[in-house]
Design goal:
This protein has 290 residues and is mainly alpha-helical. Helix content is 52%, strand content 5%. The protein is elongated.
């Protein structure tokens, strides 16, 4: 005669872990199963240590550290389990002294430099703008962006008095957020001087304006044919940086001219810098740039 089905009542620790898993919405994903298993181990260990079956007691930072140090000693996955427990503990407790998680670091997105073909198209499109105001804006973007690595933060405020020809080169002086002097690339010296000479009392871009996003607004108004790239001061600056990297400009001097405090932006541009033939690279690595 078949026996009636019998069920075994969950133990208090099993009930406790089930409630925790429900609150954390742990399902059948591998990460959820892993966290459920480590919760069960923590709760069982806490019970064996005489710790009350209470969230604030079990998920105290000191208890979790003790569990990881003693119960998980020697396990290769101890770091992962510790991170899991610290993460869920913040969700399961109110009184336990947990520091808030650090703010996520902002993702740094560096503008993509223009290709040589795109730069050629920009030069033609700058000349073909329908009004003098737009032609001057496009010329200014190219001269200050490709010639001195300036973007919207400075392009709108550089005036004639900020352009200095002395010592056999042309310099542009800029202020905040990174005051410095920038030597203009030789190919853009005449254009920068011409823009300064024709600016009068205005800035090189044209009449002065207090509009916060004047450069961005002007860039949007520039006319470009279908399939041609838009004028972007940030992309022009990235192209200037890549040009210097390809020419072998020393990083300390380049960072100073660019107003950079470190090399992070430059490292993000390395994938856009052309590589030397192997024999030239070997010579440079052996003898240095010359």
């Amino acid at each position: 005669m078949p026996q009636p089905n019998s069920t075994v009542a969950p133990t208090p620790t099993e009930w406790f872990v089930g409630e925790l898993a429900a609150q954390l919405d742990l399902g059948t994903r591998s990460v959820d199963l892993r966290r459920r298993r480590i919760l069960q181990r923590l709760v069982s260990w806490s019970a064996s240590e005489g710790i009350p079956l209470e969230r604030e007691a079990i998920f105290d930072p000191a208890v979790i550290e003790a569990f990881c140090s003693r119960a998980l000693a020697g396990e290769s996955s101890r770091g992962t389990h510790r991170a899991d427990l610290r993460r869920v503990a913040r969700e399961l407790t109110v009184k336990a002294v947990w520091e808030p998680p650090p703010e996520a670091m902002a993702w740094r997105k560096v503008a993509v430099p223009y290709s040589d073909e795109e730069l050629d198209q920009l030069v033609v499109d700058a000349r073909d703008q329908p009004t003098e105001t737009r032609r001057r804006a496009a010329r200014c973007f190219l001269a200050l962006g490709l010639g001195a690595g300036l973007d919207g933060r400075w392009i709108a405020v550089v005036g004639p008095s900020d352009v200095v020809a002395a010592g056999g080169h042309v310099e542009i002086r800029v202020g905040e957020p990174a005051p410095r002097r920038i030597v203009v690339r030789a190919a853009f010296e005449e254009e920068v001087l011409a823009l300064a000479d024709s600016a009068g009392e205005a800035c090189l871009l044209g009449r002065r304006s207090v509009a916060r996003n004047r450069v961005g607004d002007l860039a949007k108004k520039l006319v470009v044919p279908a399939g041609h790239p838009r004028f972007s001061p940030s992309r022009l600056r990235a192209s200037w940086l890549c040009w210097h990297l390809e020419q072998g400009t020393r990083l300390p001097e380049l960072c100073e001219a660019a107003g950079l405090k470190g090399f992070e932006v430059l490292s993000d541009l390395l994938s856009h810098v052309g590589r030397l033939p192997s024999n030239e690279a070997a010579r440079m690595l052996r003898d240095g740039a010359s």
